[in-house]
Structures are given as C-alpha cells and as structure tokens.
Design brief:
This protein is mainly α. It has one domain (2-217). The protein has helices spanning 2-36, 41-44, 58-71, 94-125, 130-153, 161-169, 172-179, 185-194, 197-217. It is built from 9 helices and no strands.
C-alpha cells in the first residue's frame, strides 16, 4: 500500500505541471483564435487565460486521470478540461474559421511538446543533481502528455477537435449529418479506451513523434 501511494505521489509530482500547462494552453488557444475571428464569448467569460483554475474540470482533469493512471499501471493518461465556449455564428466565416479554432488546441500542444523538448535538452546538459533529474523527468512527461493530448484531440470524433475540423471541411449536408452523431462521441471514446483500441491507435503515433522530437532536439 505504501509503495503504491509513494509511486502515485511521485508520478503526480512529475506530471502535475505538464498536465496543467497542456490543458490550460490548449483551451486558451481555442479562445484566442475564436476572438481573433470575431467571437468574443470566451474572452467575455475570462477563458482566454493562463490560470489553470479557469479551465480545470474536477472530474475530467483530476479524478479521471488519476484513476486511469492507477488502473493502467501508470502507462496511460486520459482526461479533459472544461471546453471553451465558442459561438459558431459569431465567427466572421463560421465554417472556415471553426476549423482554425478547433485546430488551435492541438497546435498549442505540439508547440508545448517542442518547448518541453528544449527543456529536456537543458536538463541533460546540466550537471547531474536532484533538480536536473526532476527537470528531465518532468520534461519527458511534458513531451508525452502533449503528444497524447494532441493526437487524442485530433481523432475525427465529435466533440473532439478533430471532429470539429472534419465537420468544417465536409460539404454542408454531410457536415450536418455528421454533427448529428455527436451524442455518440463520448460513449464511443469510452468504449475505445476500455477495449484498449485507443491506446493501440495513439501509442504508435505518440511513440514515433516522441522519438522524432528527441532526435531533433537531443
């Protein structure tokens, strides 16, 4: 029991900052791009913010990720934040601009993965010590977390960002028919997660991308 608690505490200490930054900047990016294209909804609600408390969903950001870490033997992480509100009709060109709003979150995660990779390079160059070791572990977690968030959100399933992008690119009639499937999206994700299909799809993508980023930076 003590070993399990200690391992959980160690894992949380390493992943806490990467996860908070990943969800905060992901959601803020949606709001920022929406504001850029004319929708002030997220701005008016204070959601274009780097304050994690404005984006944290207690269940999705804390309870579910911790439970999945424990159940997966610390091998998989899954969770979500409070979605940034977007008024589709307030965008200047709703269909085209919604694709950019949706893509902004995953692109923010990609940018953060690269920043964490730079920090990993710095940690490797620092003299071996407690701080450099912790920074190295946190940076590795930061790359992993952001790649998982990016690829997960790019899945073409509504209400994920990839689903929003696909709906924006489809012809109007097909997009309308596709949007009707949104209520099935979250149950489908749960099924994919429980059957390990999700980890089977994301695992190779994350692994290859992680190795590529490290090869470039290190």
């Amino acid at each position: 029991m003590d070993d399990t608690v200690n391992q959980l505490a160690r894992t949380l200490s390493i992943y806490a900052l990467p996860v908070l930054f990943a969800i905060t900047l992901h959601e803020a990016a949606h709001g920022y791009v929406a504001r850029h294209f004319g929708d002030m909804t997220a701005h008016a609600q204070g959601r274009i913010s780097l304050n994690p408390l404005r984006h944290v969903d207690v269940v999705g950001t804390i309870v579910v990720p911790v439970a999945i870490l424990l159940l997966s033997g610390y091998s998989f992480l899954f969770g979500w934040a409070k979605p940034v509100p977007v008024n589709y009709s307030a965008l200047r060109k709703p269909r085209q601009h919604m694709a950019w709003v949706a893509a902004a979150g995953p692109l923010a995660n990609l940018a953060m993965a690269l920043v964490w990779a730079v920090l990993l390079k710095i940690a490797v160059l620092l003299p071996a010590a407690g701080f450099s070791h912790f920074l190295e572990l946190t940076a590795r977690a930061g790359i992993l977390v952001n790649l998982v968030f990016m690829f997960l959100n790019l899945l073409p399933i509504l209400p994920l960002d990839g689903g929003r992008v696909l709906a924006s690119l489809l012809p109007s009639r097909a997009a309308w028919q596709y949007a009707r499937l949104e209520p099935l999206g979250l149950p489908l994700l749960v099924i994919l997660l429980l059957t390990n299909v999700l980890s089977g799809v994301l695992g190779p993508l994350v692994g290859v991308s992680d190795a590529l980023i490290r090869a470039i930076v290190l």
